[in-house]
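Minutes, project check-in
Item: structure for the 253-residue chain
Input as provided by the requester:
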Amino acid sequence: MTAKEIIRYMESLQDEGQRKVLMGFFKTAPGEYGYGDKFLGIKVPQTREVVKMAAKDTPLGEIPELLTCQWHEVRLCGLLILVWRFERLATRRLINDSEAIKQRDDILMLYLKYASQANNWDLVDMSAPKILGHWLMLPSALGDKAYKRKVLDQLAASPSLWKQRMSIVCTWKTSQMGDASWCLRYAEVHLYHPHDLMHKAVGWMLREMGKRVSMDLLRDFLRQHAHEMPRTALRYAIEKMDDEERRRWMLVR
């Protein structure tokens, strides 16, 4: 399928009632974080069905047209096609394959080039861990771990809330794969972030790191930072602890 065919098909699925619901849910009113975004009113399972139809045969060169589309759901479709492609190049059999490495790097660079198009939390959260986070843990011809850290540092230092969110939410995958270092680094970087969406992201990633890697590492982080963390971040980080331990952490100031 071409990008134009995908867009036309998705436009045919437009649902006015659902569109209004999504515009409220994703905070598109003036002054809100999603201001100006446009929706067709397509639910995520419908978008995933389009991805199933299109992902295998849509040329990579068509994806930028999807990522720059005015419609939120079409941009999500483009991002999920990249996720689909990346995951199939990251199987155990292909981890060290030179052609697969090149193609993964190409997807990563395309993702970063159009990162600003992932301009809401769902677009970030459904793509960053499975592309950017997974790439951090795999062989790359682009550079070593220091290079990868530089990529995340640039995202973290961006004035864009969504690029900043990418730099922390991508660590969901690194923690899932047993490496706590990425989460701990970028949780500290964003510890004083002013936006509630980042407080939630930091706490969520810390919680996942504790669950996937080490609760002791999570407790060590909290012993250093609980007194200065935003309350929302702290609540998210300790969510899976027992009631008594949660109470103790919430009393730390």
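Outcome recorded: Residues 82 and 107 are 7 Å apart (CA to CA).
No further action items on this chain.
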